[in-house]
Design goal:
Blueprint: H1 2-20, E1 25-31, H2 37-45, E2 49-50, E3 63-69
């Protein structure tokens, strides 16, 4: 529980700083395996939605992609 609270605090801080810098969108890649379940769940709690691969990423069954519109 304490670890999750710290993780959420870090995520909220990153989102807040991105907004201050007028960043319009955050995109994140994480693993698709069960080991990464907690990370995916945390991103979703922060409002991230699944999306297509971005930047240099290509479709990969071992990856999940998320984005958050900051506008």
């Amino acid at each position: 529980p304490l670890r999750r609270q710290r993780q959420m605090c870090i995520r909220v801080s990153l989102i807040s700083e991105a907004k201050k810098l007028n960043i319009e969108k955050l995109s994140i890649e994480t693993g698709s395996g069960s080991f990464f379940h907690s990370a995916r769940k945390l991103f979703q709690k922060c409002g991230f939605k699944t999306c297509e691969p971005f930047a240099h990423y290509k479709e990969d069954p071992n990856s999940c992609y998320f984005t958050l519109d900051l506008n």
